[in-house]
Amino acid sequence: MDHSLNQYVRWLQGIIEAINDGILVIDSEGIVRLINDEYTKITGVKKEDIIGKPLSEVREGAISPTVLIDKKRRSAIYRKVGEQEYVVDMAPIYYDHQILGVVNVLKSVNEVKALTKELEKSKIKLAQLEKTVGHLHQAKYTFHDIIGEDKEIKNVIELAKRTASSNLNVLIQGESGTGKELFAHAIHNESPRSGYAFVPINCAAIPSSLLESELFGYEEGSFTNSKKGGKIGLFELADHGTLFLDEIGDLSLELQAKLLRVLQEGRIRKIGGLKEQEVNVRIVAATNKDLLQMVAKGRFREDLFYRLNGVQLMIPPLRSRKGDLFTLIDKIVKHKELPFHLTFTADAKKQLFEYHWPGNVRELLNAIHYAATMTDSETIDIVHLPAFLQSNRMADDREDTNLSLKDILERKEREVIIKTLKIYGTSLKGKELAAQKLGISLATLYNKINQLKIKF
């Protein structure tokens, strides 16, 4: 029996020591029978100085002996010993309707204050983080920033505005420098999601091995050198907002499959994570590549293409909307970094107009900045333009003057058809895709092949 009792006492002592609060127990005579290490830590009183002694003698003003008499609980009694502050809850202990003693539970006020202080620091850091994240992930441009009076670009702007109010994913296609990113920003700012984050990422700028962790985040310890606490992914940052996937054509097939799954199920799982979480994200993707060609060659998933292609915006190149050229130049000239009254000579204007602008608006911007740097006055002449603009003969304007207009057109048509068939192939499927790309029927394509005597 004594052995069993000793085991019980050790077991009880182990439980008390495991509790994070300070514990003191007195018996029915007011004698201290148990305290734990946390009690010593809070009050500074050692076990040998208090156990086996009347509490009223070793702790001046002790209330526990009173609880033995009136048998009433006490809660949140404030006590201070030296620099230590704590609150005490007291409760009588009963067995078979007989009072056996009183248990005291102590909580350190100092510790609560320290935790509160750390909590406040965390709140401040969180507020700063939210402010930073909000600042970094705001769309910068609106439709007012997109210049264009040409019919083709105006049609694209109108379609983009209509698209903005929906939740459809958007695929923006166009050559480099045409302003695809401006459209992505503007669509977000015009959408019901404008109050949430706009999160851009260039899929071509980050190695595929790192891009997955950027998109989906990871849990702590997922791999060597991973951040403590893990990392939040861009999908999570963009929740309820817009994720702009620039250069989507450079996404690996493996990541294409994972992106497709998110678009289908609306859920993500962090690298190294076990749980999935829902995300509500609109995807705006952009590319300067021909995704249909990539689909035909097996380099881009067809199912992903149609998931992204809720609405397709084809941004026209600058050479096809020359009417907007000087409107764009006026906007560039009015930029704060350039003189306000910059003018162009007739020769400079002619050269700017005749150039084919393969780099589009971005190339135009660089050319005007260069010319403004080269001139010592407010007038820009041909000599101030970049070297590639000073040539009297443009590469894309070279034609054999001995040919008739009909011959020139047929030669160009033949070159375009051959080039397109080389891209998509000469199988039936390839010809169907080529006809679609050229904007003609399959029957018309076959007629052209025969008329122009195209052989493979």
Automatic annotation (TrEMBL):
Q: Which GO terms describe its biological process?
A: regulation of DNA-templated transcription
InterPro entries, sorted: AAA+_ATPase, AAA_lid_NorR, Homeodomain-like_sf, P-loop_NTPase, PAS, PAS-like_dom_sf, PAS_fold, Sigma_54_int
Superkingdom is Bacteria
Boundaries of each PAS domain copy? 15-53
Q: Identify a single GO molecular function assigned to this protein.
A: ATP binding
State if Transcription regulation is listed as a keyword.
yes
Give residue ranges for domain Sigma-54 factor interaction. Answer: 146-373
Keywords on this record?
ATP-binding, Nucleotide-binding, Transcription, Transcription regulation
- Name the record gives this protein: Fis family transcriptional regulator
Which species?
A: Pueribacillus theae
